Predict the 3D structure of the following.
Amino acid sequence: MGKRTLLLTMCFILSITMVLGACSSGGSGEEPAGNVTDSDDSSAVPGNNDPLGQYDPPISISTVKRIDANLKLPDGQTNEDNIWTQSIAAELGIHIKTEWIADASQYDNKLNMSIASGSLPDFMRVNQEQLNQLIESDSLEDLSEVYDKYASPDTKQQYGVGDSIALKAASVGDKLYAIPNTASAIAGAGSPLLWIRTDWLDHLNLSEPESMQDLFDIAKAFTNNDPDGNGKKDTVGLAFVNGQVGDLGIYNGFHAYPSAWIQNESGKLVYGSVQPEMKKALEEMQQLYKDGAIDPEFAVKDWGKWNEMLTSGQVGIAFAAHWFGQLVHNLKVRDSKAEWKPYLVPSIDDKPSKITLRSPVLEYYVVKKGYKHPEALIKMFNYYYSLTVGERATQENYHKYMYDKDDGSIQYVALAPIHTNDATDVAFKQMVEAFDSNDAAKAKAMDAKTIYENATKALNGENSLYGWTLYYPAWKLFFDMMDNELYVNNAFYGAPTDTMRDKAATLSKLEFETFTKIIMGETPIDEFDKFVDHWNKLGGEQITKEVNAWSNSVK
């Protein structure tokens, strides 16, 4: 597996790890050369409202930068003077000057000092708490109007996913205070899809599941009826990682949304893990475990052990996101008959199941109040997307602006003044459209091209690339769910409340241990009611009050 392929795969598995990989860089802080107006001069015209129009005369905009001390700089380029700053100056007429730079470990502390002193650059990258603080002190420009006016179609498509969940996280009421640095909104949905060994279905003459009861029957058959035909009782229906106990897609089939804040019928925000629907889901899981249809050792399974079970062909059902194919490609190499397919989680009743969308926001970019060209931030995002998923997303530009063409060790993208995760929903949409139309040209973004090309090779017999073929059906399902509004947004996307900071670890441990014991039958299902009572008394009730106070404050 090549360096860039590995980077892409790691990016896809972001929905498991949610690891932030977007670090930008800084430099000397010298004034840029050229005919540049002062940052408070409003005489420059921003390209006649063109999303990528050039300022004439050029403008300057100040910022502060977080740098990665281990970043390998390209020859002849610096943290401040590089391919991104040069191109943005030449093509947009925006000259970026850096007031200070700091290592990643010191950036937040230094920015907190700047915020406290009121010494702010024209735009900057902030975390959730810093965003809240700047909003409360009335220190930021409202970007609503300039976003509507200047955001390009590619930019709006990315931030429109999931009922614009990312922009909502950056808004208070009808005011947009930031442009988020996001991962894929859909890829962060946890483990929402149902994956089944279809060759096992065929071997046992079983139909694809249309109801939750069908799924239960398949799970038991996969455990008891020798689906691999080797004459041994060495398979299990459903297996998962211990950490997935509270985040399996099967719960969504019971209309339960654990670990998420959802609106109840009265409009109040409630925690999904303590709702009655969760009790019903756990009761059915307890019975499945008793029937032997769940891996008896799930409580001690980590990702490595789970993957070993998948690769050795012991498992027939799993819950995971789009990255699942990268875990089972070695199984295909070992057993060419093995076939996996993703499905929507079937519902327990006549209401369709919905997945939980969690906020994809990693951090935010904001503009200081009073800066005369707040639309400059929007135009830089437009420029970024034009090169990564738009018409200019060529292989040449990929190696010029993103990663070097040798081994990917030079990350040009880390030098960009603004950044979003490079595996975007727009890229995945392009990949789906390319497969739907059998037109490779629709896969403009390099991530889309990589999936399309590798999947095509796999479909032509290269089993070592089999995992890539599963991205298309997974994302096809995801976008169908989006189009049909079969999702529930996590309704809380603010900074952790005071009680969350104090009690979150205790409450999470209580939840994990209770769910595990119930599924394994170590405690009766009525233990769930005691869990809810303990959860409230240990801080959950106060957190609920704080979450609803936050919700009321942002309406």
Remarks:
- The chain has a mean pLDDT of 89.
